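Key idea: predict the complex, not the pieces.
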Amino acid sequence: MKNPINQKEPNFQIDIEPIGKRVYAEPGETLLDAAQNAGIDIISLCGGAGICNSCKVRIIDGRVSEVTRNERTAFTPEEIASGFRLACKATILSNVKIDIPPESLSTPQRLQLEGQEFKAGLEFGKECVIRYYDLELNEPSLTSLESDLSRIKSALEKKGLMEVHCRFEILKNLSDLLRTQRWKVRTVIRYLLDDQHGEVVAVLPVGTPLYGLAVDVGTTKLAAYLVDLDTHDIVEKIGEMNPQIAFGEDVISRIAYCNEHSGGRDVLQKKLVSTINLMIEKMIKKRGIKLERIVECVVVGNTVMHHLFAGIPVKQLGLIPFVPAIADEMNIRACDICINIAKASYVYMPPNIAGYVGADHVSMVMSTRIHEKEGIHLAIDIGTNTEISLAAYGKLICCSCASGPAFEGAHIHHGMRAAAGAIERVKILNGEIRIATIGEKPAIGICGSGIIDAVAELYKEKIIDYRGVFVKKEFLIGIGTKHEGYELVSADFSGNGKSLIVTRNDINEIQLAKAAIRTGIDLLLQETGITYDKIDKFIIAGAFGSYINIRSAIIIGMFPPLPIDRFHQVGNAAGMGAVELLLSLKMRKLTTSFSRRMTYIELTTCPEFQQKFISAMYFPKVVDR
Amino acid sequence: MKNPINQKEPNFQIDIEPIGKRVYAEPGETLLDAAQNAGIDIISLCGGAGICNSCKVRIIDGRVSEVTRNERTAFTPEEIASGFRLACKATILSNVKIDIPPESLSTPQRLQLEGQEFKAGLEFGKECVIRYYDLELNEPSLTSLESDLSRIKSALEKKGLMEVHCRFEILKNLSDLLRTQRWKVRTVIRYLLDDQHGEVVAVLPVGTPLYGLAVDVGTTKLAAYLVDLDTHDIVEKIGEMNPQIAFGEDVISRIAYCNEHSGGRDVLQKKLVSTINLMIEKMIKKRGIKLERIVECVVVGNTVMHHLFAGIPVKQLGLIPFVPAIADEMNIRACDICINIAKASYVYMPPNIAGYVGADHVSMVMSTRIHEKEGIHLAIDIGTNTEISLAAYGKLICCSCASGPAFEGAHIHHGMRAAAGAIERVKILNGEIRIATIGEKPAIGICGSGIIDAVAELYKEKIIDYRGVFVKKEFLIGIGTKHEGYELVSADFSGNGKSLIVTRNDINEIQLAKAAIRTGIDLLLQETGITYDKIDKFIIAGAFGSYINIRSAIIIGMFPPLPIDRFHQVGNAAGMGAVELLLSLKMRKLTTSFSRRMTYIELTTCPEFQQKFISAMYFPKVVDR
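Result:
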């Protein structure tokens, strides 16, 4: 039935994935208009001219206008066939469902995505690590003289838990709590093996909500997630810099610090833990909850971060053959490493594979499920250290490459981390530079995704050659000075009154980093006798990995030139894996068996490593669109 | 063949049990002469006149002179038949083997006995709690990349240990140790269940000797034993006062202190632990060993001491129905309660039975094995709180009585603890007072065994009546003053220039204490329908229990008038039980099942308690010999 008051044409519904948001569009609007009007920041560098190719989206359902000429240039026929469009060129003709790839979104929008992505991937059974029981106990009397703890154990036995241990710390306030709560309490059990064996990790008043904490300890960045253990929702999250940066920006320099300073390991451990504690404090303050309600924690990190977090020596990780002190999963008591959560709770750390393939990579790979899928899957977690896993023909192999901190903005002349005002996208359109900054703030520096874009554009525009050498000097400023470089933003337009440039050295840093990654990919493929074009799914994890422009990464040769739709940017999958490991006992068991199946390849011992690395330093000869 | 040089008559060998010492006697010497010449201090108050009956011994084998008239007065015909003699009256006629009851020995000699007694009772299989393996591991290489810990686990698997956990603390120095020790290490495993499951609690250089620590935490006194885990010998022992005395001399006042002072429980816990740490320090310093070599600890104590040691609330132990927070055995990590032994080691605490029958009593009863023997056995541990267990017809029942600190010398006018100069034996011979002091030092006070003797002698000599009232005033000094009492030592002969007396109040304190104990014994017997004369073995444990004169205890009515040979003074059996529990896994398992079989009787809820207690205050009408 027609609405008699509103006579104008009806609005169209636009369902936007993976955000899961529904917006409305007036007839005649483009997808870009509709999204931007609804507050969704799709990146657009050319102002809707259809030339920057930043605003790509994929139509899942519904009708939009015909594919334009610009789009035929922007996409391959396969991509167009699978629904790829530039949002600025697609006019809405019906209700539509679209998917926005993370790289088309501005950083704050991408950050919002993470929790959503996680929810979609959730597949728990009833096998939770933490389960609670609201118990009503018999009050002691002269004819009922069992101990306080025995009462709890008997009540749990009636619920089928035959073997329940009790953390010693619980006893410190159990007797008082039972009496003030009039013998009605919520008993929190942590399961390690099966449904009959558990450990009491908290006894709280009935109705107390319970939380878990997942922490991803990166060499550079820390991410922490506060998870509601009832709804399985991430209710708070927070990122911080790893404070150990002050003692060395990569794992090698942190190991060196520990070797050279007696007590150095303790210093690094305490710095890290106190920052994590601050992150916890911020989240619980925001949420208005007490520490005691966080009853389980998962920490993932590369092997060096894993060892430094747990206060385990790292010296042997810096010496051939780089063996970890421990590879098995760990269940450490939170209080043993001074993590400020419930006194009797545990920190679970997934297994490490090798000295340079750690628990964070295991967590990431688990969350992507590549080990249980058909076809050939490659999963890569780009960071200061980059880990790569390849699942092919039931085999699982992995390696590690020292990509360095350039993608974090370190060692880059005007580098900065991905924060407000960082240039995150660069495009040279008809000789004119277009940039996008995080938060749309005036530019004050350039972050990893920005520098990759810049290098790719400079190469595409032939301003630098395949060696990374500036060949069109007329585009440079400060020639002959220390500050010789290609200017992205002039001093007049920058946010700090400085001219923001890309130097030869910056390009070289990116060459080193991308060469390390590509060498790893190629050697893994070689090990299994697969050529890159056989890869069905190329999964890119890590905060940085979600932000990069895949095309730019292909142009500079960091990634092999696969069709764009085979790439999947999955965000902080290590963190998401940590959240799943926080919740699911099944996942923990799978992780243990998975880590035993994984074969580690030590790249530096491959005879071709050196030569492959050197040739990977160059940019690929054929420049793609 | 006769020795041609030494023509005089041969010496006789005297084997002395339970000390296990062999001495030699000239023909014609008495057993007392022979023992004293060899440095064994048998108490003799009458100087060998055969009238003080202090020097009783039992002939196990060999010939001595005929029983004298004095001895027929001193012993019952049954005792004589079973070999009892006064050492001063028995002349040696052949090689002889004798047994000296603890009460016939001076305090320092008795203390020396404890380890010996323990050795005699040792009955382990191969089921040790702590076992070690000297491992030779494969060095890592580029073709052998397992973690350091995996190498240890694999080596242990080859030895049949399939499930080995590793204490997190081990990892803190494992990697360095393996490399400095060139992959040869001693791995120390703690067993909890069976031979296939263990936990690595220490990794040390090959050849490192290992020790264990057993601690008996009494309300008043602490005893610690350092045990060689290879030989099972007690290599050091030490006693100290419980520093919590400053916060209340009995358990009730300590509970009150915790209730009245916020943080009081922590204060008491820290005081106790720091004293135990000092005791450890003294022992290891004397022995010249490192803390890290002590790899297991057992702590026993009554339930309040147990809870206060572990830092568990005691408030509910002071409220009807006096239930413990935990009754099950505990395995706490030493570092969780700041006991300074090897970082990854555990403290095992045996189960508690009830609020006032604790792990120390369990440990004591276990060491006496009354639960596995035929007949009717009563085991009593006398202290500020006295626990009694009765094993009869396969039934095990126990109770607790508040005997108070009088036996520790507290609340006694010239009371002191059993230290040098304390009067430990009193005898009135023909109206003349004979005393023996600890260490044969001039008297400066009177300890528990001395005051029991004194009260018994005053009653026997009819200086006090059955109510404890002085009836022969002519023997008193200071009549009408606060210091009215019976003088044991005059100011001229005492070690501190003071006249040492026994007051009416002292007698009353002893009456309260002995009434509490006797009421407990009688109510336990009543519960099982047994009369006291049916008791086959009356085992007296506790340091104080070993020192008392059984006859005096019978005279004042503290113990039932059983034949003297049914009494067995077993020293600090709780401490000895703790040592056994330190070593034997079998004992730990038995203790768990035993504690579940034990039935606790709450005396204060028995309807007859009050009346029985009041009548037990009086001294028994019939005065025995």
